[in-house]
Amino acid sequence: MIRSEAFYKSLWGHIRTKANFTFIEDSVNTFTELSTGVEVITDKSSYFGCKSIQ
C-alpha cells in the first residue's frame, strides 16, 4: 500500500521537472466543461486545457 503523503510527494516532485507544466497560484471562480476541453476562470485570468486535475 502506498501512503498518500509519499505518493503525492513523489508525483509533485516528478511533475515539477516537466517543462509542459506550469504551477499558478490563483483562486478559481468557475470552470466550464466544453466539448473541446475545460475553461477555468480565475481572479487573475482565464485558462483553457484539454483536461483538468482537481
Explain this structure.
- With about 55 residues, the chain is α+β, with helices and mostly antiparallel strands.
- It is built from one helix and three strands.
- It has one helix at about 5-15, and strands at about 30-35, 35-40, 45-50.
- A three-stranded antiparallel β-sheet has the order 1-2-3, with no helix packed on it.
- Strand 1 and strand 2 form a beta hairpin.
- The mean pLDDT is about 85.
Keywords summarizing the entry:
54 residues, three-stranded antiparallel β-sheet, 31% strand, 22% helix, alpha+beta
Task: Give me the secondary-structure topology.
Layout: H1 4-15, E1 28-34, E2 37-42, E3 46-49
Antiparallel strand pairs: 1-2, 2-3
Number of helices: 1
How would you classify the quaternary structure? single chain
Helix content: 10-25%
Strand order of the largest sheet: 1-2-3
Question: Overall 3D geometry?
Answer: elongated
Q: Could you state the order of secondary-structure elements as H and E?
A: HEEE
Q: State the end-to-end CA separation.
A: 23 Å
SSE class: alpha+beta
Count the strands?
3
- Integer-rounded radius of gyration: 14 Å
User: How much β-strand is present in the residues?
Assistant: 25-35%
